[in-house]
Amino acid sequence: MPIVTIQQGPRDTELKRDLVKRVTDAFVDAYKIPAETVQVWIHEVPADSWGAAGKLIADK
Questions:
Q1: CA distance 38 to 59
Q2: Which residues form the 4-oxalocrotonate tautomerase-like domain (predicted)?
Q3: How far apart are CA 52 and CA 41, in angstroms?
Q4: Predicted local confidence at residue 59, as pLDDT
Q5: pLDDT in tens, 13-57
């Protein structure tokens, strides 16, 4: 059973719903497995807990 973990900043529920569907479909297509065997975990990180290029994302 594939488990896909996605780390990202907060997103709208509808966008996450679409992402989970597309990721699942990609695994079904690539591995020829049932959709029921694919799990997608979304870990959302607040902008004040994520940094890039030496700065918090919240400060950009």
A1: 36
A2: 2-59
A3: 23
A4: 95
A5: 999 999 999 999 999 999 999 999 999 999 999 999 999 999 999
Identify whether the C-beta of residue 38 lies closer than 8 Å to the C-beta of residue 1. yes
Give the C-alpha distances (Å, rounded to integers) separating 10 from 21, 35, 38, 49, 58. 18, 25, 22, 11, 12
Residue 54 burial class via C-beta count within 10 angstroms: exposed 0-12, middle 13-18, buried 19 and up: exposed
Distance CA 27, CA 33 (A): 7
Query: What's the alpha-carbon Rg for the chain, to the nearest Å?
Result: 14
pLDDT of residue 22: 98
**Which two structure tokens, joined as six digits, stand for 12?**
């709208």
